[in-house]
Amino acid sequence: MKKGAVNIDFSHLDDESLPIAAVEHNGRIAFANSALEALLGVPHKQIEGEWQLVHTKAPEHPVADQNEVNKELLRNLAHEIKNPLGGIRGAAQLLQMDMTDKSLIEYTQVIIHEADRLQSLVDRLLAPHRQPHVLGVVNAHEICERVRQLILVEFPNGLTVVRDYDASIPEFQGDREQLIQALLNIAHNAAQALEERIADGSATLTFRTRIARQVLLGKARHKLALQLHVIDNGPGVPDDIKDRIFYPLVTGRAGGSGLGLSLAQNFVQQHAGMIECDSIPGRTDFKIVMPLSV
Hints:
Layout: E1 22-23, E2 29-30, H1 33-40, H2 44-56, H3 62-98, H4 105-130, E3 136-138, H5 140-154, E4 159-164, E5 172-174, H6 176-193, H7 195-200, E6 203-217, E7 220-232, H8 260-269, E8 274-280, E9 283-291
């Protein structure tokens, strides 16, 4: 270990998080140089400069533009990681075939398993950019009901799902499957945050729809917009990640991938909308806002 450096405990990170950073004694965020250079084939200073863009950019519309920066960085890193992963896995398989000491196969299996796990993560990161945008007539309440059914199948006891719908909301053009997935990601996160309340039977999840008028989304003003709220009575979003919950790989739950809200935001943005979050202990409100085409 380099003189002056300290031991870093990475046990708090998700098991799917990429090991991209460590903290040195001077408090600066420093990339694990040799590991990144070997994995990506890109000088660590170049990657560090790209990462700093995420923190230094101060756009007019911070959430939307910040997500665009994050998505572009993530796409670039994911593409750079894919090819080396295939090489690592293939080399491990060749080593395994030539091994005379079968006790060592355990180690090549670890390499193959971890390469497959990271490949799966990369595929999930790239998936939203590969899937076509399929437009059709969408009913907001049909989407809510579909997600409600899925949530209650997974959490059949201890969770009450309240429906508070505005029946006047018209149908609109959108990608039904993407919107179901976006709402499901939000609702599923909320249900998981309600674990303690579900155990004592006091968990409540509310789907609320309303119409908003003269809404500014990005730089465009819309006469009518859908407001779809997912409200829970859980502990709230941890303070240390409130400003970053829509960033990829950010999660407040042990074992979480940190992809659900990032993908949800991506899908809603493809509909010219935005997801916002207002959270305090005892009440968290995720609000999807999207223009209505009438």
